[in-house]
Each structure stands twice: as C-alpha cells, then as structure tokens.
C-alpha cells in the first residue's frame, strides 16, 4: 500500500513542478526575407513562360466577352466606346506605378512633362501590353493641345467582328481608356479617344487622339519659359 501510494503521488508532484515553470519561449517576430538578387514579386511577370506572353485565344475570348457585356448595356456606338474607355481607365492607373517600379532607377521617375509622358506610353507602356512599341507619335498642326499615337495593327481589334451598320466602332477605345488613366496618374489630365485611321497599307490602323487640358499646356509654356 505504501509503495502504491508513492507511485500515485509522483504524477501530482510532477504536475505541481510543471505548474511553476515559465511559459514557452516567445518567438522572435518573423521578418520578410529579401532574395539575394534584391528583386521582389513586383519585378517578375505573372506569366513565367519562355516568351512571357499570354494566350491570344484566351485574350480574344475575354475581350470579346467584355465587348458583348458592354454592348448589351448601351444604346449607340459612342456610348459603347465610352463604356470600353471607362473599363480601361482604372487599369492604366494601376499599371503606371508597376511599370515605373520596374524601370531602372535613372528612368523610374514619374513623367511630369508632355513629351516624356508620350515617350513612356509609346515605349515601356506599349511594350508591356503588346510586346512592341507604338508605331508613331505626332503633334497636331491645328491644335496645340492635341497629340496622336498610332498603332497600325491594334491587337484588341484583330478578334472583333464589327457589323456593317457599326463600321465606325473602334474597340481600341479600351486602350484609349488605359492611356487616359496613365496621363491622369502623372498629373497631366487629358481626354483620350480612339479613331479609325485605316490606309491602303494598314486598313486596321488606329489613331489615339490625346487632348490635354488647357491648364497642362499653360504649365508646359511656363516651364519652357524658365529654361
């Protein structure tokens, strides 16, 4: 009996001993680890394939569904283009800081003048979207606040079948909205629209007309006068 009682008392002694032990050691707060190449997830494309390109079939299907969705909720061509423009605008706002982050430090400054902005849209912005630069940048000879960026074969129009009664429709208004978002994100407010500018050599050519606000043009003149 004595030995049995001794055996029973052992767990109680252990429990009393452990009750006075300090709590588990607190873990040090974990910190984000930076890769050895100093690059983060924002430096990498989501698509890690060899050519880093999305499937054109997938893009054609998704964009076609976007156009169909907008078409069912509008009453005319201008209303449809406005709807596509509104869909592209927030994408341009979000792409701007990402593309600037990926630029080299010496060129990662947000453009605050018209010419550097147009060069950014013509180069890095267009290259990110379509794998090449735009075809041309022009300044209107009749209006000082109007500039034009041309694309001879816009990808967004290659998979859209436009009926004859809507031949004035240009679904590149979606890209025009993205350009407008980039301009506004740089503080250079502008209105951007897409226009059919087909030629014999380039029947699908699209001209993106960028109309800057008068305040932007006035500021450009003041900055030029200080030089």
Written description of the protein model:
The chain has 6 helices and 4 strands; from the N terminus they run ααααββαββα. It has 227 residues and is of the alpha+beta class. Strands 1-2-4-3 form a 4-stranded antiparallel sheet. A hairpin with a 6-residue loop joins strand 1 (136-139) and strand 2. Mean pLDDT is 82; it is low at 1-20.
Architecture blueprint of SSEs:
Elements: H1 2-19, H2 56-71, H3 77-102, H4 114-130, E1 136-139, E2 146-151, H5 173-185, E3 190-196, E4 206-212, H6 214-226
Antiparallel strand pairs: 1-2, 2-4, 3-4
Helix pairs in contact: 3-5
The sequence of SSEs as H and E is HHHHEEHEEH
Low-confidence stretches: 1-20
Using DSSP, what is the number of strands? Answer: 4
Q: Summarize model confidence as the mean pLDDT.
A: 82
Shape: globular
Computed Rg: 29 Å
What's the story with the biggest beta sheet? 4 strands, antiparallel
Percentage of residues assigned to helices: 40-55%
| First-residue to last-residue Cα separation | 105 Å
What structural class results from the helix and strand content?
Answer: alpha+beta
Classify the beta-strand content into a percent band. Answer: 5-15%
Strand order of the largest sheet: 1-2-4-3
Number of alpha- plus pi-helical segments: 6
